[in-house]
Structures are given as C-alpha cells and as structure tokens.
Write a structure and sequence with these properties.
Layout (H helix, E strand, L loop, with lengths): L6 E3 L7 E4 L4 H7 L3 E3 L1 H4 L7 E4 L5 H18 L12
Antiparallel strand pairs: 1-2, 2-4, 3-4
Length: 88
C-alpha cells in the first residue's frame, strides 16, 4: 500500500483485493478462507497486517468483502473494529 492507501481492488479479470486489517483479524480471516497473507508480508517486507482477499463470486460474498473493506477502513482510521462482529 502506498501513502494513505488502506486497500485496493485488482482489475476485473482478477477482482481480488489487497488490504490492511487489524493484526488479530488476519489469522481469523485467513483460517476462514477469505484471504491469505500478502506475499511481501509473508517475507517480512511489509507489516503482517497486509492480506490478499479473494475475489467475491456472488452477492453474499460481495457483502462479506465489503464488510472486510469497512474493517480495513476503520483500522486505517485508528478504530479497532471487531472481526467477530462480521458474518464471514
């Protein structure tokens, strides 16, 4: 992520997203199969709060990814959202 960027969406043919999430949320979201650690985070080059969220495939998954995006935004604004409140 560059500057104030907290997330971005990849081109439509891919549709995945990179985003920053609260540290305690990362293992939960990865374990649930919604994301994987960003390759540079896995290599220790950027914070371990960086993940790649998989592209949504249907309306329900779009809602979940939007919830993750809201969590990322709140995290960027200094609000520590609770991942347990998300329907994943």
């Amino acid at each position: 992520m560059i500057g104030n960027e907290f997330a971005h969406v990849h081109p439509p043919q891919d549709g995945s997203l990179h985003m920053m999430l609260p540290l305690d949320a990362v293992p939960k979201i990865v374990d649930l199969g919604w994301a994987e650690p960003h390759p540079m985070a896995a290599a220790g080059m950027i914070p371990s709060t960086a993940v790649m969220v998989y592209a949504p495939r249907n309306s329900a998954e779009i809602e979940t990814v939007l919830d993750l995006l809201r969590l990322s935004y709140d995290f960027a604004c200094g609000k520590l959202g609770q991942v347990d409140s998300l329907v994943l």
